Every structure is written in C-alpha cells, then in structure tokens.
From TrEMBL:
Coiled-coil segments on the chain, per record: none
Keywords from the named record: Glycoprotein, Repeat, Signal
Keyword Transferase listed: no
Name by which UniProt lists this protein: Peptidylamidoglycolate lyase
Amino acid sequence: MNTTTSQTRYEPVPGWAKLPMGVTFRGDATSVAVDSKDNVYVFNRGTEPIAVFDVDGNFLKGMGHGEFVRPHGIEIDRNDDLYLVDDNGHFVQKRTNEGQVVFTIGTKGEPCDWQSGGMFNRPTDVAIHPDTGELFVSDGYGNSRIHKFDPDGQHMMSWGEPGTDPGQFSLPHNISMLGLDKVVVADRENFRLQIFTTGGEFVEQIHIHHPMSVTQGKGDDDNLYVGEMIPPPVQQGVRNLGAMIAVLSSEGDYQQHLGGPLPG
C-alpha cells in the first residue's frame, strides 16, 4: 500500500525539470499529467506548450508550437492520449501521444456568451472516466458549469449555475474523478470542493482554502490532493494561508499540508 497518511513525508527535488537552452515555461507551468510509462507532461505557456520529461526530469520533446492561446489543463487517458484545455482559446482538444489532433470540442476564439451555461467560456480542466472514457469539463472563468461528453466528444449533459448554494459555482477551476461513480470540483471562489455523481447529482461539499486544483491518487492511493491558492492582497504575509497542497482522505478528512507557512 502506498496510501499517504499524516505521517508521510515529502521532500522537493530541486531542479527536477532539466530544461534545454532556449526552452522556458515563462513562469506558467499550469498543469501536469503522467502517462503509463511515467513520463511527465507539463502544459505550459512557454516555448514548448506540451513539454515532456522522463521520470528523472530529462527533457524528451515539445509539442504544440503556436497552437494554443492560453494553456490551462491537461489529462491523460489509459491509452496515453492527451486531453488539453485552453481557457482563452475556449476549446478542449484530444490528441494522440505524439501530438496529432483527434478531435476538438468548441471553436478556437469563439466563446459562448458570458455565464450563459453554453460551451465554452474559458474552460479550465477535464477529467476522464477510466472505464467509460466519458469526459467532464469544468467551465470556468466565464461560466459556472460542468459539461459531460461521451468518448467521441459528443455532448451528453451539463449542470451548475452561478451562486453559493450546493450545485452552484463561483469559478469551477479544476475537476477530477473520485472513484468510478463521482467527480470532485475545485469550486475556487467559494472556497470549497463539491462532489457530484457522474450524473450531476450533488453529494456533499468540503470547505478548504481557495482550491485551485484537485486530483485523486493513483493505484492504492485514493487520497485527494488539493492545490491551495495564495491569499488575497489584504492577507498577504499572513501565515498558513494557501500556497500549499492539502492532502485529504477520500472521505474528505484532513491528513496534512505540504509546503511552508508562507509562499516561497
């Protein structure tokens, strides 16, 4: 068993990503995914939008030159295909592991009306059901919606609206599968995680500081890992507020925080 507990200890690996001369993330390595060979894919806003590294951090290749507006989210399915979310491009794209486009959901540069519930207005992330291949897209900066698609990218259903009640969202910023029958959404500006069935029925909510990202562990590790955003300007310099990773059990019980009491 590799399940994290409150006694598990982590250490950073300085300089893990070995970037070749001329390759940079330009300060925005926005999302990370790992394939079946333990290669690491960094979706970023730099010179190589899809930067691929081996497990030791050696740079393998880059893809997607000039093809994205503002990279935001990445996920990899069991076949090692890539799913990429471009928020300012207003589209979600499936690509092969070699970077060839399989399909695109949405039209690049053409958002739906702001907070209309359509598809898309600055989508943020995608989750993939490991058995069915169904897609769940969080949408986003200009919407308050979760969209569900079949494995071919055909729309199945959507749920959510602006607000603070259960099932409402204030910037759904990230989404992950939770087991095989639920999804968990980082409802960022409502300072909570919301859990739903894969059919969009509200299950529960978990209060947490400014959640930017959420993912469930792999294999025997079913814990939740939540990236917490830095505090707003009025609270800058206050200790123990964000810029950390919260580790929760799959039931939402607190395990530990990774990171220091202040950013940096």
